[in-house]
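Q: Can someone sanity-check these two? First one:
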Amino acid sequence: MKKNILAAISMLAVTSPAFAELGQAREVSCLIIEDGETKVDGPCEFDPTDGFGSFDFQTYNGKFWGSFYSAGDGIGEVVWNGEPYASHAHNIQRDLLREEACWVNDYATFCFWDDR
């Protein structure tokens, strides 16, 4: 039983964007919904920025980009452009709670997962 649990944890570490190596951006699947509107549903670049779960993200066409800041204990916030091709991060979603591969509040959902 202990071996199965360790194997499952090892597999999670390999497949979860949260365990990606710092400074090693990689492609993941993204789903971003804000105020009921799906803004992103497809591949994006995921780039961990610290050892605490914070990361940058961007769509490959440059349409959307932003940063997630982990406050620890499954809470965080996203600062992102929110409008297609906007040059500044003017949308802020605070008090996001972790729900599996997603960060969610009453107004937005940000999901990042590895299909591999």
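And here is the second, same format, sequence then tokens:
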Amino acid sequence: MAVQANRSTRSTERVAVLMTPQEKETYTQRAQAMGLSLGQFFRQAGEAYRAPSAVSGDDAVLIAALDQIESSTARAEQALDQALAMVRASNLSMDQGQSA
């Protein structure tokens, strides 16, 4: 019974995380570069993570701005594709006119 009582009064809990040896090496190197233990690294990463539904404030503004940039970039790419198609058609027409 002493073991169970000891476990229930601990101030920390152990969490097993399964990953590949390469992932562990990558995270270990990142943690060392930051001067953290692997446990500290994962605790800080967990604290910094915000689920998309929990985004608010400045993050929401940045996400909205990124969405707008992606949308305008897609429209610009379409316009450029159309312009290039017109240039190609014009060049082809000019080439055919010169060879006649």
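A (reply): Looked at the second one. Residues 73 and 79 are 10 Å apart (CA to CA). The chain has two domains: 13-49, 52-100.
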